[in-house]
Specification:
Helix content: 40-55%
Strand content: under 5%
Order of helices and strands: HHHHHHHH
Distance between the termini: 50 Å
Number of strands: 0
Length: 196
């Protein structure tokens, strides 16, 4: 008998433990963004903070935007955000769809809404329009692999995903985080202001 403990299965989201585990994973995904050197490179190289050095490969020289390398899908590691954000968005979709049925509070659902908006905001800022339908419908939890997608326009992503989720997060998150380093109204307001 198999009892998966290190992966989320669609059925796991239909339990309170699964939804709470999904919320924990929302925070954990940040390490794959801000803890990854290529993502950090894509945010910092070419700014006043720093530039590439003698031993830098094409990834760093391309992100410098100095003209030494051409910035494209093969010369940069912008795939790091793309790959991490969509799986996290899908987890947020699963939390949002199942939380009420298992008795999870609106404040905890607001954390998932914040992270879904956060990931879409990061994607739109980096790539422009991105898909809202991961295979099961717009902003729906997808549990079947799909290689098809349609990019929504930037205004559609803002009006259907980013703004509604952030406004709901501002309304439902507590003023004081439930855990140290957790989300609060202030964080949601900050990202709503950035999105506006």
């Amino acid at each position: 008998e198999e009892k998966p403990r290190s992966i989320f299965t669609p059925e796991f989201f239909k339990t309170e433990r699964g939804v709470l585990g999904g919320i924990t994973s929302q925070y954990a995904h940040l390490r794959f963004l801000y803890g990854h050197p290529y993502y950090y490179n894509s945010l910092e190289t070419g700014t006043d903070e720093y530039t590439w050095a003698q031993s830098a490969d094409g990834n760093f020289r391309a992100m410098d935007l100095s003209g030494l390398e051409v910035l494209n899908a093969q010369s940069s590691r912008s795939d790091n955000l793309w790959g991490v954000a969509f799986s996290n968005i899908n987890t947020a979709n699963g939390i949002i769809e199942n939380a009420t049925a298992v008795g999870v509070s609106a404040a905890l659902v607001a954390e998932a809404r914040f992270f879904r908006a956060f990931d879409y905001f990061m994607l739109v800022q980096t790539f422009g329009g991105v898909p809202l339908d991961l295979g099961a419908g717009e902003l729906k939890f997808n549990n079947s692999p799909s290689r098809k997608s349609v990019r929504n326009t930037v205004p559609v992503v803002y009006t259907k995903a980013i703004f509604p989720d952030l406004v709901q997060a501002v309304n439902d998150l507590p003023a004081v985080p439930r855990v140290t380093g957790g989300l609060s109204k202030t964080v949601a307001r900050l990202y709503l202001a950035k999105a506006y």
